[in-house]
Each structure stands twice: as structure tokens, then as C-alpha cells.
UniProtKB/TrEMBL annotation:
InterPro entries: DUF6441. It comes from Alteraurantiacibacter lauratis. This is DUF6441 family protein. Pfam families: DUF6441.
């Protein structure tokens, strides 16, 4: 048997073009997978009811920057790794250097101070009065109650400190549960970070082949 091989065109040029196409395919597929994984993890966080602020802590980056490469790599990470890990693996959170953890109620969350989350100490500093401690009974948690408050009207809602006149007359004053006190909280597993990463890694080969073809 006799075989003959004939090349059409410049072989070196053909190979160079194939390498360039492969570099574009690999870099494009890695960028696509990196962005897809980041978006899926953000969707997991919001879907679990953990809010858009925590979701936006997921970031992605592809290397090398600004050029195609057969060795392209992507990284997805969170700027709040401890919080994410707690919701991905489950965690038992105990009060540190204190008897209780203070869990804010909806009323407390509506009374943000300067963009910060309201804590018992911050509330007392802001209002100039102490919270009232209500001991837990019959399996119910202890509470911290804000007193002498008035309900805000309008779209803003929430509660505010009562005026001097209202304090004298007692008209329109309310007591509001602001914090629930518990010795510990167990976070259930609500995120599947590892599973999402494995799914996007498994899709990478097909994405490279489609782009190269």
C-alpha cells in the first residue's frame, strides 16, 4: 500500500491558526463557566431567602486577563466566606462572651441606624433609654422590649421615639418586641456550593469543543 500526503497551504500557518482557535475556545468556555457558576451561586443565595446583599458577595475572575490561553483558569469566591460556609455546611452559632444571641425582629430590622443593622446596644444609644428584659418562660425565649415608642405613619413605617408630649400623656405609646434572645442558633444547610461547581466543571469540555468547532 502506498500513501501520499499533500498539504494545501502553509502547514505552519494552519497549525498556528488551530492553536489560536483552541486558545479562544478554552478562554471563552472558561469565562462562560466562571460567569455561569457565579450567577448560579448568587441565585442560590437569593432563592434561600438570604438576600441580594449576600448574593452579591460572590465574585468571579478569569486568568490570564485580556488574552486567550490554553491554560486559562477561572475562580469564583465569596467576600463573606464564613457566612456562606455556615449556610453551605450548616453550623451551630453560640453567643460569644455573652449569655444570649440577640436576634432582631422585623420591627428592629426596620429601624436601621445610619445604614447599620440595629443591635441592642446601638438601639439604647440611639433612643437614650434601656431595653426591657423579659425572661423566657415555659420553653419560650427571653425578649428585649422597646417601650414608649410611637408607630410611624406613611410608607416608611416602623417605630420612633415618642415626643415629650406623648410621654406625658401616654397617648399613642406602644411597647415593641425588638430582639429575641436565644443561647444558640443552628443554621441548616441551604446552599449547595460544591454541587454547583461540579456541574459547571462537567459542562466545560462540551463548551470548549463547541467553541472550537
Amino acid at each position: 500500500m502506498r500513501l501520499e500526503l499533500t498539504t494545501i497551504g502553509d502547514l505552519r500557518q494552519i497549525m498556528a491558526e488551530e492553536v489560536a482557535a483552541a486558545e479562544q475556545a478554552v478562554s471563552g468556555a472558561v469565562a462562560e463557566a466562571t460567569g455561569g457558576l457565579k450567577d448560579e451561586l448568587r441565585a442560590q443565595v437569593t432563592g434561600a431567602g438570604l438576600g441580594t446583599r449576600l448574593a452579591r458577595t460572590w465574585r468571579g475572575q478569569v486568568w490570564p486577563k485580556g488574552e486567550a490561553s490554553l491554560g486559562a483558569a477561572g475562580l469564583v469566591w465569596s467576600k463573606a466566606p464564613l457566612i456562606i460556609r455556615g449556610h453551605a455546611e450548616g453550623a451551630l452559632i453560640r453567643a460569644r462572651h455573652a449569655t444570649f444571641l440577640a436576634i432582631p425582629t422585623e420591627a428592629a430590622r426596620a429601624m436601621r441606624a445610619g445604614g447599620r443593622r440595629l443591635t441592642p446596644r446601638l438601639w439604647e444609644q440611639r433612643m437614650g433609654q434601656p431595653l426591657r428584659f423579659v425572661p423566657g418562660r415555659a420553653g419560650r425565649p427571653a425578649l428585649l422590649v422597646g417601650e414608649n415608642l410611637r408607630a410611624r405613619s406613611g410608607r416608611r413605617g416602623g417605630y420612633a421615639r415618642a415626643s415629650t408630649t406623648a410621654m406625658r400623656t401616654g397617648h399613642g405609646l406602644v411597647s415593641v418586641v425588638l430582639f429575641v434572645l436565644v443561647p444558640q442558633v443552628r443554621l441548616s444547610k441551604r446552599l449547595d456550593v460544591g454541587g454547583a461547581a461540579e456541574r459547571w466543571i462537567a459542562r466545560l469540555e462540551d463548551r470548549i469543543v463547541r467553541r472550537w468547532n
